[in-house]
Amino acid sequence: MKKNKPQKPKKTPFDRYAHYIEAVQSVEHDVELYRDLFKQARRKEPRFLREDFCGTHALSCEWVKLHRDNRAIALDLDPEPLEYGRTHAETTLNTSQHSRLQVFQRNVLSQTEATDLIVAGNFSYFIFKQRAQLLAYFKKARESLKPGLGMLILDVAGGSSMIEHGVERRTIRSKELGKYTYIWECVSFDPVTHDAKFAIHFELPQGKTGKRRVRNAFTYDWRLWSIPELKEILMEAGFKSTAVFWDTAKSNSDEKYEIVEKGANHEAWIAYVTGLA
């Protein structure tokens, strides 16, 4: 009698965009944060968003849900995440919301219809390593904002965790994807050039006790721009003024972004640098 061969544990299905959106993005929170930063600076509600380096454009989809008069333009060069967004994020929109969303496979250096707000989130503009490249982007962004009314928002990160090799692990419990581990790795940092490499890995359960590690689900080759550099280049690009929004909440469990002139350094921090057109 032949013995049955032991079955290999089944692999847990892996959807890198779904895992990324859930572990990294919080679009419901982000659209309200960007709206509030705009209101602090402009004393009015923004209605028209341009999302640069939009990827799956989940943020833009959430923006048009936020208010019946909100519109969004989303730009990215990579067709793969754009298609993922069309078959996932866009399917959550009703007819009215969908009619107020425009998605383009286009370079962010393109000029578009003038919007109230341009957001380059998740440090995406760090891909521009040369000053001339970043200046060109800021100039094009300014030209695509409503004069005297528009605002560009850039998130920026710092602290020792961004320049020292190491990993951050976080357990995610999801109704849709189950329990898994998100891993952020600082791979390398060059203090002379400020070139830095990062990677996102995931650990998924496999079988009853095993784990499947998905390495380098996303990788990043960036230049870490500093806040003073960003402010200087924004002004050179023709923005009328700049401001830095820093989290001034007393507790780590709270969040309160306000305009500051100085900030307290931490192991890891995220701030928002803005330019007013």
Task: Report on the architecture of this protein.
By secondary structure, the chain is of the alpha/beta class. The protein folds into 2 domains: about 15-155 and about 225-275, Vaccinia Virus protein VP39 (Rossmann fold); about 160-220. About 25% of the residues lie in helices and about 35% in strands. It is built from 7 helices and 12 strands. The strands form 2 sheets. Strands 3-2-1-4-5-12-10-11 form an 8-stranded mixed sheet. The radius of gyration is 20 Å and the shape is globular. The termini are far apart. The mean pLDDT is about 95.
Gist of the model:
This protein is α/β, with parallel strands linked by helices. It has helices at residues 16-23, 27-42, 58-66, 79-87, 95-99, 131-143, 227-236; strands at 48-52, 71-76, 101-105, 117-120, 151-158, 166-174, 178-189, 195-206, 210-223, 241-247, 257-260, 269-276. The chain is globular.
How do the helices and strands line up, and which of them pair or pack?
Layout: H1 16-23, H2 27-42, E1 48-52, H3 58-66, E2 71-76, H4 79-87, H5 95-99, E3 101-105, E4 117-120, H6 131-143, E5 151-158, E6 166-174, E7 178-189, E8 195-206, E9 210-223, H7 227-236, E10 241-247, E11 257-260, E12 269-276
Parallel strand pairs: 1-2, 1-4, 2-3, 4-5
Antiparallel strand pairs: 5-12, 6-7, 7-8, 8-9, 10-11, 10-12
